[in-house]
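Why run this: before we spend reagent on co-expression, it is cheaper to look at a predicted model of the complex and decide which construct boundaries make sense. The entries below are exactly what would go into the expression plan.
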Amino acid sequence: MDKKRNLYIAIFLMPAIIIFVIIYLIPVYNVITTSFLEWNLFVGDKTFIGLDNYINAFTNDSLFMASLKNTLIWVVLQGTFHVGLGTMVALFLADKPKMWKFMRVSYMLPNMISGAAFAIILLNIYNPEIGLINQFISFLGVENFQQNWFFDTSTAFFAVTMTWLPYAGLVAILVLAEIMSIPTSLYEAAAIAGATKFQQKLYVTLPLLKNIIGTCVLISATSMLKEFEHIYLTTNGGPGSTTLSLPLYLYKTALIENNYAYANTMGTILVIIGFLIIFVINKLFVLGHSDR
Amino acid sequence: MYNRLIKLTLVIALCCSVVLAGCSSTDKESNTDTSKGTTTTKSTDDKKSAEEPVSILFPTFQVGVNSSAPLLTENLRLFEEQYGDKINVQLEEIPGDQAYVDKMKILLSAGDLPDLVYAGGYNLLDLALAKDQVVDLTAYLEADPEWKESFTEDDLAFNSRDGKYYGVPEEKQPIGYFYNKELFAQVGIEGPAKTWDEFFEQCEVLLEAGIIPVSMDSADSGWVTNLWLNSMVATSGPEGLEFANAYYPKDFNNPAFIDGMSKIQMMYQKYTTVDAVGGKYEHAANNFLSGKTAMIANGPWMIADFNDSDKTEEGFADKVGSAIYPGNGLYDAPMYGYFVASKDEAKADATVEFLKFITDEEAQLRGLDMIGRIPASPSIELTDEIKAKYPLLAELIEASAAVEYRYPTTQSAWYPNVVDRFSSEAPALATGDITPEEFAERMTETAEKN
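The model came back. Tokens follow.
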């Protein structure tokens, strides 16, 4: 019986494994191996240069270091503030206040609009002349307020970060679904023991959300390793390198500088960072172990 | 159990291999060997090709709101009428020239360029030549002297490498600037400035009257801003002219460039709109078309917009004048044009036939008549009818005869990553976070990566 079961498992897994190998594993293998080459579209031959691309990235490329720093800051912000905000919204909605369904859908809206469209909307909202934000500040009494949010070095990083950080609709939905699945008997027992509503949230709900919060941290943090379109369509990494992310720098290196090997070096570094993030979050949240 | 698993895996792998090999062999049958631009077909469909039209792939960004779109549509219609039974042009619409360039680079790296590629202003030609994906047009041009005479020697030489012709342009693009005569008259300015000192005096006069003098931008390539910049550099003296005419400069640390950037910094801070910093070409154009700014640097293709009631008020064209740059300069350099990247002889022949159709003198005349495109051919002269239809174009061409300094656009002369860095750093320069010297240093650092 066990043999037959294993055979079925193998049969059902096989297509996914084959597709994974062809679509992901082979390209990742190519990315890693070509990162040790000198490979430019202008240069005919590919030459093996060992770790030169990596050494150059970490010792001689200020744009790479700036993009790496920005990306890591965004990973941390997204894994903490973004998930924290989504969790708070979910805890609030779990009490089913008036119009909670409407609020749930409204909060989800920015996640449903395409990233490109949302970036263009925000580009106009932040516009120094006609943007809603400056007009609102002018309305509050600061006459003719014309802050160029996206293109002033002092505000660009904040403005770009605000294009994704507050919109934690996906986190809220996932956490809310998990809260809804917690048996009411646990709350009843806590209430009999004299726990207040706040204490029930703190000592019953939150510990049971560890797995889903860990998953959300994982999803949110790793999403920053591929964040591209919001930045590309708003600041394009500027002013200077203030908002340059690693994926955007990778894109520019490949398609503008035609330096494919160096772009693949960054790709490899992104893959390694991704694995590290998954490892750390798995350790922190002990994911995969049931709490019930 | 494990044996069974291994067997099953092998069977599935075999199935996959058969399917993939099938796909691959189909491709191979219709693919070809390419050697130095000449091709040998191995297609099994050769017999059919005598009966069926040859399909050629032509991706283009001259679609939608692009000012050349109506001309291309007409060219395709006429070509279909004349050659529809022999050649089938498959148009692939790629809105946006940057998206087009990006896609061509990806296809180039995969060795899969389409049959006809537009390299104008982006130097895709040298990239494609480095990958040996360009068809040599020498024999085609020599076989058709009439077509060859549709271009100047300078233009053909610019598209040649090692004595072989690889591309042909479809137009000339002298680029000066446009000014709003009505706004000039309001503040008592009689006409375009002859020197840069006079230009900045005019800016000051306009500013004092509450009129924003210049349209500028910084996003994408900072196209409009770059036009002002390189003109200042080119007309600053012999060293500046040499730098402005240099293709792929690697050292931007020179007085002419730094002085030009200082003036650009001042223009960002004093003489342009708030949305210029971070703004795209469209913002700059809208500001001029809405009468908000008094001047914009741009090419003759913008003339069509002055008559477009969807973009500006009726009669706006009558308010606009065209001029060469202060210091007697004009963008007027040979241009990259189309090149053929077909992988077999039949397709190359068909593509060249189409290329002839859209670039010969007849097509150039059509372009002049329909959208005011300046012909590449030296033998086409502006008729009185055309002058009456496109007075701004006639004005610019007339003024260009006396131009002392001619130079290419930075978009065609600089490395693409330098153009991109210009766009990223310009906002920091505008806000004073970096100096013109630091700006030049960063441009040099980027150029050296190539």
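The longest helix of chain A spans residues 2-34. The two ends of chain A are 30 Å apart (CA to CA). Bring this page to Monday's planning discussion.
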